[in-house]
Amino acid sequence: MPAPENFIPDTLLEDISNHGLDVSRRDFLRKSFAAASATLASGAALAAPDHPAADGDMAILQPSAQATRLGHPVAHMPYGLPSKHEANLQRRESPGLTRKRESSISFTPLQGLFGIITPSGLHFERHHAGWHDVDPRGHRLMINGLVSTAKVYTMAELMRLPSVSRMHFIECGANSAMDWASPAVPSVQYTHGMLSCCEFTGVPLSLLLEDCGIDKSQAKWVLAEGNDGASLTRSIPIERALDDAIVAWGMNGEMLRPENGYPLRLVVPGLQGVCWVKWLRRLEVGDVPFGTREESTQYLDLMPDGMQRQYTVIQECKSVITSPSGGQRLLDKGFYNITGLAWSGRGKITRVDVSVDAGRNWKTARLESPVLPKCLTRFNLDWEWDGKPYILQSRAVDETGHVQPKIADLRAVRGKRSVYHNNAIQSWQVSAAGEVMNVQIS
Amino acid sequence: MYKSLERARAMVAWSLSTLLLLSVSAAHAEKFAGIGRKATTNEIAAWDIDVRPDFQGLPRGSGSVAQGEKIWVAKCASCHGEFAESPSVFPPLVGGTTKADIERGRVAGLSAASENSKTTIMKLATVSTLFDYIRRAMPFDAPKSLKVDEVYAVTAFILNLADLVPADYVLNEKNIAEVQRRLPNRDGNTIAHGMLDLRGKLDVSGKDCMRDCPVDTNAMLLLPSTVNGLNGNLADQNRPYGSIRGIETRRNP
After folding, report:
1. Is there a domain that residue B158 lies in?
2. Tens of pLDDT along B155-196?
3. Alpha carbon of B103: minimum distance to chain A alpha carbons (Å)
4. What is the dotted CATH code of the domain comprising A318-439?
5. Before A4, cis peptide (omega within 30)?
6. Which of B124, B196, B238 comes nearest A112 by C-beta?
7. ipTM, 2 dp
8. What predicted TM-score, i.e. pTM, was given to this entire model?
9. Under 8 Å CB-to-CB from A276, ≥6 apart: which residues?
């Protein structure tokens, strides 16, 4: 519970320290203390402000501090920050995944986000050798290999080229990996939080490859290389490189954040996140894949017969209910908006169905616009909770007709030891107490 | 060098078509005047260090198992273990392969029958990958600090630990392809799947049944109670207001 002194606004404290206590400031202070004491005395008013006292809601009857005093000046925070009341929604690590925090993951708090755009500061992180805040004046992009002229571009040069801005999701190939064999993590932040969606701005990769004179008769793969300690490399199939890939500097209207590859990253819509090479420094056109570490010992899909699927780049049709979701608790019966996200690396989402009875019966959810290819799509379904136990699921269908599978369907073909490409239907069990738990249904 | 030979051949091919390309190149230059410039030979050499499975890009050099062991002890063992077997910091590099695997070109330990943890050498189909990654990314806290001969030596040491080369082996740009042909999982990868091409055929798809669909809730798997609290207090990871809150997961025992 806040101490009474917390009811004195920062600006007033500043004012008092600058000007001393005059009559009006003295008066304001007295009122603030009175209000704070009243709230403390009533107790319940703070704990459950939604339930008004008999004579009315104190939030209405009591003059609020912000309605009766001057607020902060403009440019008080020249670069704005979220409200202090929103501090619970942060990128978080999951224990036991990695031993080195420079080669690790932080997850996006999907449980608290709205719409389809991930705030830049909450975009998930996956680094292989830590991140740097690179000076863009020293950053270069080289294009070599099967091109008529190997070229070097500065950031200034790239940013003069004709650019495009497009919204796309990015999902790590290992998203939902921990739940391949059985439920292992408690909330949607950890089951699905290696997923973000932003508007990216940059020059189409095809334009740059044309500018260097790509040899289209021989080109089959493009190696993308980062300028981090790992100089992370990944082979991109030429069809994807020449389709909708972007060499991007912009994210959500501003430059990329350092953790997301500032000042330059590759955006390869629909492909697993590791292909979206950050701090992009070089693109090499080749006639065969390059067999890099991130496609030869990692990001392989181990099949039951021991064969490893290599270059499984496309992220399949998938969805998840973000609220109510695992680790949450419904405080009361009544109306709730079941809401979540759907996406496919092959194009647009055409339909999302929601079940509240573990998959026996389904209702088609409302899709919020815009519905864009290779982009998150927000879905909603009205629901009235009557205090009984339920199991909530969502199931997406994309424009190629692919229906999101059950975990049992995936295991039947790929076994239990897979790591990547778990696009299974997620089940959330709502108990009679309103507690939501991660479960798996066949 | 394989790469320069490859380039020389490519240059000849290009020069034959230069007359045709010239007009096209000129058009490009016009289109984005003043943007980008030709990369110099030194610049390409500095950055183009990747080594492909066909060994295009492999630099000339050599290193012995014995030299590799010295470097290993000084710069690698603290993370990967004395014998590259340690799982304590990163997944283990060596172990889980047999002579029969080397004969066959497939690692038996990767099949469903085995629950063994997977080491790098079990999964690896190309020595080029090992060489390339050590050269560009290792040691973890000082990447690109090894000289080319040192990269050969460390690669040779790992290959020796995996029983692929003898203790007196000297790895170089000429014999590395032979070693690659001995890798225990050299035939263990496939691209016969639907997740490479947008038109690729899918191996798993759900059914869009809408009413009275078959469900087996008896086979329901629950989140084990042992994970309670491992991801912190979920009450602190959701908004502290509203009708949906986070569950208190750090309850007092």
Report:
1. yes
2. 999 999 999 999 999 999 999 999 999 999 999 999 999 999
3. 16
4. 2.60.40.650
5. no
6. B238
7. 0.88
8. 0.88
9. A170, A261, A265, A266, A267, A268
Cβ–Cβ < 8 Å for A328, A440 = no
Q: Which CATH class is domain A105-309?
A: alpha beta
Whether B174 and B75 map to the same domain: the answer is yes
In chain A, what residues touch B84 (CB-CB under 8 Å)?
none
Q: Which of B48, B53, B223 minimises the CB distance to A144?
A: B48
Q: Does residue B234 belong to the interface with chain A, where contact is any CB pair within 8 Å?
A: yes
Q: Which of B30, B118, B189 to mutate to test the interface with A (most CBs of A within 10 A)?
A: B189
Q: Give B58's contacts in chain A (Cβ within 8 Å).
A: none
Ranges of each domain in chain A: 4-80, 105-309, 318-439
Q: How many angstroms separate the CA atoms of B52 and B41, rounded?
A: 20
B41 and B75 co-located in one domain: no
Instruction: Report the number of distinct structural domains present in chain B.
Output: 2
Q: Which two tokens stand for residue B14?
A: 């290009």
Whether the Cβ atoms of residue A13 and residue A21 lie closer than 8 Å to each other:
no
**Domain membership flag for residue B29:** yes
| Residues in B touching A144 (Cβ below 8 Å) | 39, 44, 48
Q: Which positions in chain B touch A301 (Cβ < 8 Å)? A: 193
Q: Is residue B232 part of a domain?
A: no
In a domain, B230, yes or no: no
Tell me phi and psi for residue B232, to 5 degrees. 85, -175
Q: Which of B180, B206, B224 is the last residue of a domain?
A: B180
Nearest CA in chain B to A158: B35
Are the C-beta atoms of residues B120 and B97 closer than 8 Å to each other?
no
What does the alpha-carbon distance between residue A202 and residue A398 come to, in Å, rounded to a whole number?
26
- Residue B100 sits at the chain A interface (C-beta within 8 Å): no
Question: Cβ contact (<8 Å) for B52 and A359?
Answer: no
Range B214-236 average pLDDT: 91
Q: What's the pLDDT tens digit per position in A262-321?
A: 999 999 999 999 999 999 999 999 999 999 999 999 999 999 999 999 999 999 999 999
ω into A370 cis (within 30 of 0): yes
Looking at the structure, tell me whether residues B91 and B36 fall in a common domain.
no
The CATH number that applies at residue B149 is: 1.10.760.10
Tokens found for residue A294:
């991130």
Q: Are residues B8 and B118 in the same domain?
A: no
As a whole number of Å, the CA-based R_g of chain A is 26
Angle (CA) B77-B78-B82 rounded to 5° is: 35
The DSSP 8-state label assigned to residue A252 in this structure reads: T
Pair (B30, B121) in one structural domain: no
Chain B positions in Cβ-Cβ contact with residue A296 (cut-off 8 Å)? 123-126, 129, 189
Supply the DSSP symbol for B34: T
Residue B124: which residues within 8 A CB-CB, separation 6 or more? A296, A297, B130, B183, B185
Q: What is the pLDDT of residues A60-92, one digit of tens each?
A: 999 999 999 999 999 999 999 999 999 999 999
What would the pLDDT profile of B4-40 be if each residue is shown by its tens digit? Answer: 555 555 555 555 554 444 444 444 446 899 999 999 9
Q: Give the domain extent around B7.
A: 2-47
Residue B177, SS3? helix
